[in-house]
Amino acid sequence: MTLQTILGAGGAIGTELARELKSYTNQIRLVSRNPQKVNDTDQLFPADLSDAPQVDKAIEGSSIVYLVVGLEYKVDVWRKKWPTLMSNVIKACEKHNARLVFFDNIYMYDREFLSDMTEETPVRPTSKKGEVRAQVAGMLLDEVKAGRLNALIARSADFMGTKNSVPYEMVYKNLKQGKAANWFADINKVHSFTFVGDAAKGTAILGNTLAAYNQVWHLPTSSTQLTGKQWIELFAQELQVKPKTTVLPGWMLGILGVFIPIMREFKEMLYQYDRPYVFNSSKFEKQFNYKPATPEEAVKAVVRAAEVAAV
């Protein structure tokens, strides 16, 4: 059994990933400021990942390292912390000969190509957060091209789970409380979501497939194209409530941002909701003969997980 280490354990992806890695090894190291066991045999490693010596120690002895950290959703924080974090992780992985799996998003893609995103979609960020994501992904790929690092990028669309996801925070929670579900910009535009279970399982598969390294992969995501309105209707049906909706335009986000900082930060990403947003994971599905969860299955799983957590 090989030691596999999760940097950013406990987050939306880290917890699910720890469960999936149990199929591959019983040596799993969970690294965060305050890690909590997911499996009985997990090793807990408290660390500040902004500190290079602590990152080095956390990675020492690992065969595979998963970087699934979710930093605070502020561009100033991202600019300050992401390049340092990526540099620290790359140096430690190279030093200890560990393979690196970077869980990434699509912020760096050219906004004019969101209607059919593949691994070949042009990288041309048009947001401040997208610029940071392009920078750190480039740092990793440069080391791969130089032959110093064995790594891959596992890229996800906006994900759907019970932690920090738009469908959960803006749709499920509101409908559950008898309020109108919130959506952004245009409720009639198609929008893909990667179910957190598929994201974790796909990341584990890639990390444990040697031939998958040194390239970019889109994580398995249903090809069924649903609009915001249809996603809300699915949640409403599952909760047995009326699909009431409120659409938040860009100018309203500006006002809300005065009172709710996260809305101010989100405004620059609004372009992802004013046009078709279709995530293509056919490369992964064909390579691994994998069928992602359907939208209905994903919504049922999110609602079920939320209800279990509430008990």
TrEMBL record:
Q: Which Gene3D superfamilies match?
A: NAD(P)-binding Rossmann-like Domain (3.40.50.720)
Which segments constitute the NAD(P)-binding domain? 8-111
Pfam families, from UniProt? NAD_binding_10
Top-level taxonomic group: Bacteria
- Please give the InterPro entries that the UniProt record associates with this protein: Lipid_A_modif_metabolic_enz (IPR050177), NAD(P)-bd_dom (IPR016040), NAD(P)-bd_dom_sf (IPR036291)
- According to UniProt, the name of this protein is NAD(P)H-binding protein
